[in-house]
């Protein structure tokens, strides 16, 4: 028996069996790898606190005609939940004073309200309507939410290169039954874990929109933000571009600055 166990053939067989067992334990499934990448992406964007930005929203129709809107965006990071956001439109006159309040959540449906100055009314955005267009743009109300791990089921698809940057390509499927998307395909750069491009597929599985983030800028030596974002609708030829003119962090915002009760009086 001892001579059999110490024979070269048996030793090699045992080593192969051990390596196969070890690799089986360590190997990640595509779902596990996708989730791990998404978690790292989220982890690298924790701790920024709050921010205020001045932005332009440029709406383009299929013929290239443009309408520009000026707006301010206030954001507040919430620990153990989704972030809060307040968007205030300043120009042109037909949208001046319009305000959008968003409470993102990790598990529960987001809470969203829109103040319409012409009606002097605060309107709640219902969950089943969140796939609708935000202010006539190519962004949906659900696109205005913060990125939360619990909102998706992830799957690693492949490695790729986008705009010269080595990237992971992930599939993320929304867990919300009211989402307007069947899936999203995301290019995440391997160095900084930034979302470079996102493809949005409609409920029928057809490509609906493509979002590309441009001109990233580093804040607080840690947090990357795109200064230009373009959402192009593949089905109607329209697009919306968001341009950030300036962005400041640690401005002293608190939860009292994101109150539904004061939505009519935001300035």
Describe it:
The chain has 267 residues and is mainly beta. The protein folds into two domains: 2-29; 40-265, outer membrane lipoprotein receptor (LolB), chain A. The protein has helices at residues 2-5, 8-26, 30-43, and strands at 50-60, 66-76, 84-91, 99-103, 111-116, 121-124, 152-162, 165-174, 183-189, 195-201, 207-219, 223-233, 239-249. It starts with a helix and ends in an 18-residue tail after the last strand.
Rg computed from alpha carbons, rounded to a whole number of angstroms: 23 Å
Name the CATH homologous superfamily of the largest domain.
Lipoprotein localisation LolA/LolB/LppX
Any idea of the CATH topology of the largest domain? outer membrane lipoprotein receptor (LolB), chain A
Tally of structural domains: 2
Strand content: 35-45%
- Helix and strand composition category: mainly beta
The helix/strand order is: HHHEEEEEEEEEEEEE
Beta strands, count: 13
> What are the low-pLDDT stretches, counting only 5+ consecutive residues below 50?
1-5, 17-26
Question: Share of helix among residues?
Answer: 10-25%
Characterize the largest beta sheet: strand count, sense, and whether it forms a barrel.
13 strands, antiparallel
Strand order of the largest sheet: 6-5-4-3-2-1-13-12-11-10-9-8-7
Task: Estimate the mean pLDDT confidence.
Answer: 91
What's the end-to-end separation, in Å?
87 Å
Rough shape?
Answer: globular
| Count of individual helical segments | 3
